[in-house]
Every structure is written in structure tokens, then in C-alpha cells.
Amino acid sequence: MNVSASIVLYKSDLSEIVKLVKCLRDINSLMIVDNSPTDELSTLVSFSNVQYIHNPCNPGFGAAHNVAILKAIEMGSKYHFIVNPDVYFEGEVIIPMVTYMALDPQIGMMMPQILNLDGSVQNLPKLFPSPFSILLRKLKRPKMYYQQFIDKYELRFVDEDKIYNAPILSGCFTLLNLKAIQKIGMYDDKFFMYFEDWDLSRRMHVKYKTIYFPKVSIYHGYESGANKSSKLFKIFIKSAITYFNKWGWFFDNERRVINKNALSQFK
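The structure assignment produced for this chain is given below.
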């Protein structure tokens, strides 16, 4: 398979990454882009499929993955996985996802079902957000209205095993069609962290299908760092402003039309 993958690290736990690399043994070329100040994690090159890239300038999540995406394109990869360091999986995931994407050249991005460590489903496919969506999701109030909102916004009402075209896919484990990436562009490096996957999903969804594929699943240790760290919360706010400055705040007709079309799949 012409398949590559990349993981971006920053002071990551070596044992956790070793566990993940073993999960990715079906990947021919696994590029580890390490944004840490030191190269202590370079020992990962002991795995035959790993290429270690030390990137101590730490340009951010998306910009670091762009380094690997460019190398993947140069190597002739057709498909490329974006993988968070805090995920792992059991059984077949890579081959079923690539096989499904290869059957339809109009698929630009895919993600599997994402599970919490206890096996419950993370509701990560979404509609395009408004500033109100972001605020309400943080506040979770008023309670009665919030539940109606979140069920629709995060598409929680959809059958858990249904394959569908979701406007936004999470970047924690994403399969990219590199032909599509060459047409719509890579990650926007204006986003240091947060919202870069939403921005890429939006650009991709306008031109290609962005498919949620719950026939396979992975585990994701979701930390919600922006809710626990003031530093990360500031980065989150800055990225949110960048996103809405780019796509529109309260007046965004494209958002309205695409969200309406996405919901029409389920009628």
C-alpha cells in the first residue's frame, strides 16, 4: 500500500509512543515529527518503519504535520494518516479505512469511530460551528436547551454505526487522500493548536467527501487541556478568533447551507 502516517510529539511519554508505533506496523513509512526541545525520543528509529524528524522550533501541530505530508507526497504516498500520540487501537483499522477510501476518489478525508478509554463513544464528527456553538459547548447552560443543541451539533442522534459525510472530522486520527490535499492545501499554519483540523475539514468538505467511518474504532485519551490549563485556553481562544476571522463570525451563509445539507442525509 502507498500509505504513510505522521505523529507529532512534544515531550511525550516514550512508552505510550512505543505502544502506538506497534499499532501502526502496517504503515510503510511512519514519520515522527518531534517538536520537543531535545531529541531524547529519537530512540524510536529502532522501529524499521520509523523516520524521526527533530523539529525543536515547535511551529505547532498542523505545521509539524505539514512537514511529514510534504515528505509523504515526495515519496509517492497516496494516503496519509494523521495520528495523535494519545491514541491506540486493537485489530484491523488501517487496511479497512484505506480500502474504503480507495473505492471512492471523491473521499478527501476519513476518521474512524473514536472511543474513550472506557469504551464509550466520543462525539467528534460535527456540523460547522458558529461562535455561539463554541460558547454554548463550554458553558453547557441552560441545561434543557444545551442538550437539544449538542445532540444536533455533534450529530449524536445519528446511529452509531452509520457511515456518513460529516462537515467536521477530528484531527486525532485522520486519513487524508493526498491527491485531494494537493488541491485544497495542507494545514493552515496560522493555527498553532486547536481548530486546524476544523479548518482543513471545512476546505476539504467543500470539494470532497469527509467521511465518518465507524466500522472500525480507536481509543483516544481525551484530555480537554483547554479546560484545565490557562495557557492552553489562551491558545484555544486565539485559534477560535483566527478561525472565525477566516470563515465568518455570525454571518456565514456557506456554513448554514452546508450544515443544512449535512442534516438532510438523516431524513
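Interim note for the steering committee: The two ends are 37 Å apart (CA to CA). The chain has a mean pLDDT of 93.
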